[in-house]
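Hi X.,

You mentioned you wanted examples for the new student's onboarding notes, showing what a folding record looks like when two proteins sit in one file. Here is a clean example. The first protein comes first, with its sequence line followed by its structure tokens.
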Amino acid sequence: MLLEATRITKRFGHRMILSGVELKVQLGEVVSIFGANGAGKTTLIKILATLIKPTSGHLQIGGTDALADPLSVRPSLGVVVHEPLAYLDLSPYENLKFFGRLYGVDALEERIKDLLADVGLTPFAHEPIKIFSRGMTQRFMIAKALIHDPQLLLFDEPFSGLDVTAKQFMLKLIDQERRRGKGILVTTHDTELGYLVGSRYLFLLNGKIEAVANKNEIGLEELSRRYESQLKK
């Protein structure tokens, strides 16, 4: 199992954000987690990415205890969250060179060139990220997440704030990485895009994960109906 989270809870003060979350991700699948704003999706992604610690629970990534030894699992992770997680005064090229060296990426110059072309940032390779639009920053974050060719990709609301062209790019990229055998977790409140990109679907409701179905077991209309029904409870 690539990722296995067991009984993950997270409290902020007296508020319970996540309550006994159980979650698995295997290589070659895209798990789409649907949840409303404030449902705890970002908190969950940050815990799985070892950016914050849960209040309790267990997390294994590639068979390693990720909570006890987060540094050893981070090279296997590619993460896209709302914050850029980069040096905003530096350019995409400078950031990718720094992180590529950090991860010991071979043929780094060629890798950077290819990634910037893939995400459409070649013309802006040497501009500071702080002047980028939301969509451009998102494209950079994707390049950063892929620089070291990680096995596990964690995308928090990857379609948020993107125009139609950028959303199509994200759909294509996620499918491409799945076909390359990556394990991918996507959180979103957009049932249509989450359905298109996913191979297995979960709901995050009241701090808990609810298994829904695999793609071959449910259509978009039924998935949307069930999701809307759960939100009204």
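Then the second protein repeats the pattern, sequence line and then tokens:
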Amino acid sequence: MKWPTTNEQRALIPLPQGYQFERLERAHIADLIANIKLWYPEISVGSNSGYLREDYYLNRVSFEGCAEHDILVMPMTFGGELVGVWSFEREVDSLAIYGRILILAPAHRGSNLSGIMLKGAETLGRSMGAAFLYALATLRIPHAQRALESAGYRLLGFFPGYDREEISPGVVKRVYQAVYAKLLVPAEDMLFPEPKNMTPKAMALFELLFSDSPEERP
């Protein structure tokens, strides 16, 4: 599960004309943090607040040409100007990739960039040998949910209180989040659960979640 180089990222996920993935350099960290604060101030608390700290990048994020870490950050520019950032975390032992953040400058939202990149995540994951992609989506606005669903991710349920969000200035609450995933291996590679090994509640939820995919049912 080796991270692709910046040139490989560009080849794997072609972006619309004018947009380009950039190589993350240590000298870019301060500018990246300042823009993330501007584009998405709600990130100041919770599991992704590390993207606002320099030490997070230095200790946990991979830089090309250096020893790899489990988090990849992909800055994106338009006409040479920073307009977005995309970040994943790999889970090597389970061959999984967690889509941590996808943040775009307000002027570049609504242009289907998020859809293009989310679909491209499958190509990127397959190139690395990943078997499973997953992401969490806020329930305060529907945009991330719609983008993941349009990209073919399956809604698996909800995490109650897993993360924190600033719901108004100075007011922080633990929140519900939607859990989405996409499987990258064929059905024959899956061991499906047997109903006899599931409680009635577990079986009912399984049937509800996978009733539209007969090939995925036990």
